[in-house]
Amino acid sequence: MKLKWSDVTPEADYLNRRAFLAAGMAALATPALGLQGRPSAFSTDETPNSLEDITHYNNFYEFGTGKSDPAQYSGSLKTSPWSVTIDGMVDRPGSYGVEDLAPESALEERIYRLRCVEAWSMVIPWLGVPLAAVLDRVGVQPGAKFVAFRTLHDPEQMPGQRTRILDWPYREGLRLDEAMHPLTILATGLYGRILPNQNGAPIRLVVPWKYGFKSIKSVVSITLTDRQPPCSWQMMQPGEYGFYANVNPQVDHPRWSQATERRIGRGLFGGRQETLMFNGYGDQVAGLYAGMHLAKHY
Ligand code: MTE
Predict the structure, then answer these.
(1) With a threshold of 0.85, does the pTM exceed it?
(2) Residue 173 phi/psi, 5° resolution?
(3) pLDDT at 271
(4) Does the beta carbon of 279 sit less than 6 angstroms from any atom of ligand 1?
């Protein structure tokens, strides 16, 4: 299925965008528009959420814990220039500019489901590049087994870091085969525009078969290592958030069921829908976990 977001943009988004422009934001919105990405066979044909929902219902604790806090407060993040340090077990460690890691000519559009561990979900038309392409360029050394990611640590720009809700900076990690999987991307845009700050500008990870907290935002460092790296939510509450965090309707969170989810934008009476194993990406990723006890490695 090859779809571009323009083929499937819901009318609500079109109307939202008109309201947005009417609100006198045109000058702000214009420079960010017009980012192109090749359509991808990995895209879902489900209807994407509206731009309004995607950019106003967020988790980004560096800017507060409320869903509307990131949209309201992330303007203080300076996203350009921005570079990502890639180090550890790689042949060509260094500091790489975002334009270099994800040049516009290489962008693909990936319309993915996002399932948050809090049991809500969205469909988001990302623009990005496969993480594997970036890792291939820097040359992963044979002994590397894991990839560790870090978000910027700067309480001046990220005022939420003045409170100790998490042990900053936000950290995440993947097994190397998960990082190299073709579904795993580094996103720099969505809905045909540069990534808004609240969604993790200028570059963030997207791993669609895992709970959203694995998809770390505003990445400044990527380290190849032979040890499983510490991850923020796992460090905070190891009994509730695991390293793998694969979407799994059969393994409940200790405080709530993961069997169903609320699709944002469907309204109060939209009802809940069943959560799918690996968020519906089982055909592509189940093989990564063959023989693993998924309730134990949650
Ligand atoms: N990355 C950082 N640095 N800080 C965060 O608080 N929240 C995570 C993830 N990445 C988070 C983060 C969670 S819980 C989710 S569900 C997704 O980002 C939300 O992404 P979105 O706001 O773009 O939908």
Answers:
(1) yes
(2) -160, 155
(3) 85
(4) no
